[in-house]
């Protein structure tokens, strides 16, 4: 900048060059800093303040479709109603969720409610896992959240 105050033919040129450098260099440094911050942030997963997502399973990630499942056996309407009442619609089914007894003990209680359909009840309960159907969005949703860096947890009785 000192050279810009020289007198002579090239004094004006030196002044313009010094002024340009005095403005250009800080602006360029600022632009490079912004670009660095932008590129650094782009590579990081942004999760904000939320780091963990806790899901219930039933009616959130999966549906319990016992009616369609039971209909898939092709039972007559009367048999369907009696087996439904003895199993899925009984208070025993809700107790089963608590898991206080062994599975066979629950099955015996279901059979006691409709002993004439023992064979069918045993088969229905044996394959009852088929009543659980994931919602269409569940897998995509879980994968997306995982890719975004969230920690995923389940808190459920399911």
Automatic annotation (TrEMBL):
Gene3D superfamilies: HAD superfamily/HAD-like (3.40.50.1000), Putative phosphatase, domain 2 (1.10.150.240). Keywords: Membrane, Transmembrane, Transmembrane helix. InterPro entries: HAD-like_sf, HAD_sf, PGP-like_dom2. The chain crosses the membrane at residues 20-39. The keyword Transferase does not apply. This is Haloacid dehalogenase superfamily, subfamily IA, variant 3 with third motif having DD or ED. It comes from gut metagenome.
């Amino acid at each position: 900048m000192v050279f810009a105050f020289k007198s002579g033919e090239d004094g004006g040129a030196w002044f313009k060059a010094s002024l340009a450098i005095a403005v250009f260099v800080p602006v360029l440094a600022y632009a490079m800093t912004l670009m660095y911050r932008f590129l650094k942030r782009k590579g990081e997963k942004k999760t904000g303040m939320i780091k963990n997502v806790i899901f219930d399973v039933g009616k959130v990630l999966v549906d319990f479709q016992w009616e369609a499942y039971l209909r898939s056996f092709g039972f007559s309407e009367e048999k369907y109603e009696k087996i439904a009442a003895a199993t899925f619609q009984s208070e025993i089914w809700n107790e089963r969720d608590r898991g206080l007894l062994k599975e066979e003990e629950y099955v015996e209680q279901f059979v006691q409610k409709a002993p004439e359909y023992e064979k069918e009840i045993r088969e229905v309960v044996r394959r009852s896992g088929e009543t659980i159907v994931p919602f269409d969005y569940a897998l995509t949703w879980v994968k997306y959240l995982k890719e975004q860096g969230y920690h995923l947890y389940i808190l459920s009785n399911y």
